[in-house]
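Just scan my protein:

. . .
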Amino acid sequence: MAGVGDIGFDAAIGKSFDSGLILVGGVQGTLPTATDGRLTGGQFRLGPEALAAFLDPATGYVAFFPQHQWNVAGWRDGRHSASVFEFNAGAFLPDAFTIFTNPKIRYDWVDEQWTVPLNLGVRKVVKIGDLPIQVQLKADYFVEQDDAFGEDWAVTLNFTPIVPNFIYNALFGD
């Protein structure tokens, strides 16, 4: 099976303070745009999001990012009401390394099921030519999963190019 899944989006506004505190609030949702019926929820989903974070450029960061979505329209039957509570914390280490955790705890209000991961990861920014790339390795252990098919363990390896924000630069300059 191959295809394109649903598209997630968000629109938020925030404020950062000299103390390192960052506050954000907004709305996020899902558009049922999948090319294959097996890859879609078949629902337009919408809900609130918020972020409270503290960043110390010398030592690290901590953040809490709660989100919720409800089914507001669509062709697929069924209710949808799910919350995600994402916690992020990281410590900056020498040589552009960061050790971090970012569990996304999910609660399905319809089926009354939890997904609770514990995780730990490490990332480093490297340069290939002039392009910075973030390399990240993370291991997750799922203390609670939402059904008999939920994973027990996951290991992920990501390579993320760091490119200029063309939209921001066009609106606000470099």
Observations:
- The longest strand covers residues 113-128.
- Residues 12 and 80 are 22 Å apart (CA to CA).
- Strands lie at 7-16, 21-31, 43-56, 60-74, 81-93, 97-101, 104-108, 113-128, 131-144, 153-161.
- The two ends are 42 Å apart (CA to CA).
